[in-house]
Amino acid sequence: MTIKGCMFDFSGTLLRIESAASWLRATLAEAGIAVREAESAAYARRLARSGGQPGGPPPEVMPPHLEQLWRERDRSAAQHRAAYTALAREAELPWEELYDQLYDRHMAPAAWTPYPDAAEVLGELRRRGIAVAVVSNIGWDLRPVFREHGLDRFVDVFVLSFEHGVQKPEPGIFRIACEGLGLPPEQVAMVGDDRHADAGAAALGCPVHLVDHLPVERRPDALWPVLGLLDEQVI
User: Fold this and answer.
1) Which of these, 40, 45, 52, 55, is most buried using a 10 Å CB contact count?
2) What is the pLDDT of residues 119-163, one digit of tens each?
3) Which UniProt keywords apply (predicted)?
4) Does domain 5-16+111-229 have CATH number 1.10.1330.10?
């Protein structure tokens, strides 16, 4: 059966979050806090190790009291904020007021950069009449990010975990997206960077294409092979 639709993950697939250093610098500037560059860089490394930056690296060490909250963080906006601000606190910054401000910063469109081939590939899918959904484990509305970067015009359906109380790899979230596109799962490919969460779509019979979660400058064209799936037959 010919592929007629594509689901895409958000973070690490279509767009990439800024570095922890940039994230912290921007938040400090917004808060009016002056810090020497070397000191800021050291705190940024601690934040990166803590896993407190949404879209950034996972925690190097998961505090036992946060394990359940981490597993269910994408089911609601409150859980998402609670999980990431708690992990950021593990970095022990000297500014208690900064944790919520850091969380707010990561939702800003300026904190995200599209991968170099994202607009071109999405545009080509639109030209070919392929329906597109964005399916994301997330705790906030990413639609403004897509609008700011001019990508929203290529997306037919947004399925965000916190809006449905279900998260990848659970089949239900992919089923919601397929139903939103008006297509059976076997006609919808899933494109993502998480070999656990995104590959969950395979349970519904969706073909899965995985890309590497790399900085934008190191991944210029990983989305183009998605177009090859359009001509493949699903048995």
Assistant:
1) 52
2) 999 999 999 999 999 999 999 999 999 999 999 999 999 999 999
3) Hydrolase
4) no
